[in-house]
From TrEMBL:
Entry protein name: Signal recognition particle receptor FtsY
Gene: ftsY
Catalytic activity: GTP + H2O = GDP + phosphate + H(+)
HAMAP family noted in UniProt: FtsY (MF_00920)
GO MF, one annotated term: GTPase activity
Compartment(s) where it occurs, according to its Swiss-Prot or TrEMBL record: Cell membrane; Cytoplasm
Organism: Pelagirhabdus alkalitolerans
GO term, biological process aspect, one: SRP-dependent cotranslational protein targeting to membrane
Amino acid sequence: MSFLKKLKEKFSASAETEEVSDKYKSGLEKTRESFSTKLNDLVARYRKVDEEFFEDLEEILISADVGVNTVMDLVEELEMEAKRQNIKDARDLKEVISEKLVEIYTGGEDTFKTQAPLNIQPDDLSVFLFVGVNGVGKTTSIGKLAYQLKQEGKKVVLVAGDTFRAGAIEQLSAWGERVGVDVIKHGEGSDPAAVIYDGIQAAKSRKADVLLCDTAGRLQNKVNLMNELSKVKRVIEREIPNAPHDVLLVLDATTGQNALSQAKTFSEATDVSGIVLTKLDGTAKGGIVLAIRKQLDIPVKFVGLGEKMTDLEAFDPNAFVYGLFADMLTDDEM
Ligand SMILES: Nc1nc2c(ncn2[C@@H]2O[C@H](COP(=O)(O)OP(=O)(O)O)[C@@H](O)[C@H]2O)c(=O)[nH]1
Ligand SMILES: [Mg+2]
């Protein structure tokens, strides 16, 4: 059975899996449209797989922000695979492309292995720290995740560690109200480490399962920001051994390669254990997911696929690739 057909089977297995793939499909609409239009054009132009075909394919992938090095490796593997399978017709290559994209993400270990889950502590308080520059979607992602965790029956507390602006504290409070979870906050301009400390005490005494910590992304300069994050992290570590259980770096997919340089900066200052890639719905360059995987070796744990409360999904490379290729399945393959 072809790889895309296997994906189709996997995601039509239940109402739940179907819902996941539908969310990816709609969230990746811009990327899919641009990518599949270009890919279909390419296939129509060439029919036969030759060197020029692969050169044009390289350009398409680079324009989707997959990242130059990743594209080079990918196309080299595709050429080899085409030879091995004796693929001459360009149409037959899209299967191989979809499979290779998933392989890039999973490292080829098990293409059907899914996402890197949150490091939830089953019997203890789990603390998750959100970091990232201003405007990437930290507060929004916290709100969305709080909603999800609450749906799962967990008791969630939020702490407003972005004390830089009053607006940021209000925004988190509004999410707390919308979702129905407590928010611990101090006033504008107060010490972020102090409010985080209070958040931990409140979460402990209220017997919460999860504490989600918001932080500021904009301070006078990079050194200040990084020092502040280190301090916040030290406070958490001191209060709860092994915490924070995840440091989630939030990156905005629409900023493309810039997101990669932010990731490098934050990784130097703090141990980032996972990435939340937001606003995939707002870009035609969703290939950035693959560039992040290849260049950073930090798993993408969640993707933001829209602005609604329900628009945060655990990242699944299979659902991602299926979302990109779903409407390229021809009728006889359905
Ligand atoms: N379309 C879209 N917008 C998002 C997503 N995540 C966040 N946003 C928007 O990005 C803007 C900045 O988000 P915010 O959470 O305030 O960023 P923060 O400064 O990092 O806390 C807001 O207008 C959010 O609604 C997403 O996945 N998709
Ligand atoms: Mg914020």
